[in-house]
Amino acid sequence: MRLNASAPPRSTTTPLSLVLTAVLLLVGGLLLALPERAGAAADVLISQGRPATSSSVEDSTFGPEKAFDGVSSTRWASAEGIDPQWLQVDLGPSATVSRVKLVWEAAYAKAYRVEISTDGTTWTRLANETAGNGATDDWTGLTGQGRYLRVYGTARGTSYGYSLFAVEVYGTPGGTTPPPTGSFTVVAAGDIAAQCTASSSSCAHPKTAALAQRIAPSFYLTMGDNQYDDALLSDFRNYYDKTWGAFKAKTRPVPGNHETYDPAGSLAGYKSYFGAIAYPQGKPYYSYDQGNWHFVALDSNSFDDAAQIQWLKDDLARNTKGCLAAYFHHPLYSSGGHGNDPVSKPVWQILYGAKADLVLNGHDHHYERFAPQDPDGRATADGIVEIVGGMGGAEPYDIETVQPNSQKRISGSYGVLKLDLTDTTYTWQYVGTDNQVKDSGPTYTCH
């Protein structure tokens, strides 16, 4: 526990008047000796509800956002037995930090740093602890400016991990940007149900489904190839329905190429299984809103269908939301076995013209994230962020040809995307079925 000041010992023989005088002198002396404490009451809490990421989580019920939700009983917890670990919050552009208060759970840090950064890459140290003993650490009188603040643990105080009930950052928010509102979480994955069940230890889709349920998002997205190999209705019922089907009512799917292989007709089993969930507007493409986000679900098997392309243009023209995401099966850019798929380029051009923020894909069975780029693959700040999330349960593909602007690639580790969205920002984590965070994306502001 970090103490800022200690009170003098009480005396049972001192007259009351002398006690009051001593207390007044002590308070005045403390304010003179510790001027930063005199101004502490004016500090403003600027971290509550802000987007958060972490190096890992013990499991999905202990996500990084729990340390910033203002609820004293919830907490972030890292993986056990691993150093270092970190917890990071996005404070918004150019915030000024004067105080950081940490409330530790029993799994505390013996050694850690409090750091600030303008870009999430280069960090400046604000505080350093080398002999921590848990409980509450209150760092006052700090002087720091930046967008991102993190607690970087280097030595655990126990054999467990790191766990914080709260990280409270005080200071002045940057510019006039208000704290984000309308926050919600979405789980996404593609390439899901192989023809296997939980009775086989190598069957992955029961594990990704269990992980997805533990995260408990507002809803679920699938990026195609929901059921292998030919997406028969009987296979949907025998495999997908036993795992991801548990939350079918909260799922917003799109089809992949395997859904077109059904001998009963292209997308026949897919349509029969999902019904109006996949065809809410009578077509295998549709749109919907959540908070300040507009989501567009597309059928990339028929990007040569003029009706779908016209519908997309009309839908985007009607959109009034500030953030825009699209998802479909075939990625325009991929470093996996299928590689880049030019069938998606005309749609990218439409989305880029509408200032889309995020595109989610499957098809290649790996995880990959790209820096913002335009339809021609040129890195640009106003570009689209693409994520390939094809590790929902099908056999992994190797990384083959690394594409320009690819920032992170993971193959062989099954998992799901955990997307954290607000009215103005978005970030995500790729969480493995072992409950470990394999990658954390940057926090982006919507175009």
Name a few traits of the molecule:
alpha+beta, 447 residues, 23 strands, single chain
Largest sheet: 9 strands, antiparallel
The beta-strand count equals 23
Query: What's the order of the H and E elements?
Result: HHEEEEEEEEEEHEHEHEEHEHEEEEEEEE
Instruction: Report the mean per-residue pLDDT as an integer.
Output: 90
Proportion of strand residues: 25-35%
Our Rg estimate from Cα atoms comes to 25 Å
State the low-pLDDT regions, or none: 4-14, 23-41
| Overall body shape | globular
Structural class: alpha+beta
Distinct helical segment count = 7
Distance between the termini: 43 Å
Question: Portion of residues in helices?
Answer: 10-25%
Structural commentary:
This protein is α+β, with helices and mostly antiparallel strands. The protein is built from seven helices and 23 strands. It has helices at 16-33, 35-38, 205-215, 233-238, 268-274, 306-318, 345-353, and strands spanning 44-45, 52-54, 76-77, 85-104, 109-117, 124-129, 136-139, 144-156, 163-172, 184-189, 219-223, 251-254, 286-290, 293-297, 323-327, 358-361, 367-370, 385-389, 406-410, 415-421, 425-432, 437-440, 444-445. The strands form three sheets. Strands 1, 2, 3, 4, 5, 6, 7, 8 and 9 form a nine-stranded antiparallel β-sheet that branches. β21 and β22 form a beta hairpin. It starts with 15 loop residues before the first helix and ends with a strand.
